[in-house]
Design a protein that fits this description.
Length: about 80
């Protein structure tokens, strides 16, 4: 499960930077997936079915990245 003691323990500046970068990328994929699903007047021509499927794929990928980021082991 999620262990907050190991998640927020003191890390090196490089580990903190990579953790924050991982959170930013997770947020970007999540927002892009939600935008593709709910933005009806998207500026490029794509069928609604494929747009929703691609949005769901991006959201699933964001969740996978988030759990990999959280469950990272320190070397």
């Amino acid at each position: 499960m999620l262990d907050f003691n190991t998640l927020f323990k003191q890390k090196s500046p490089q580990q903190r930077f990579l953790f924050i970068l991982g959170l930013v990328m997770f947020t970007m994929y999540l927002v892009l997936g939600v935008a593709l699903i709910f933005w009806k007047d998207i500026p490029f021509d794509i069928e609604p079915t494929y747009r929703i499927l691609f949005g769901l794929l991006l959201i699933v990928y964001a969740v996978i990245r988030f759990f990999r980021l959280i469950n990272q082991k320190d070397n």
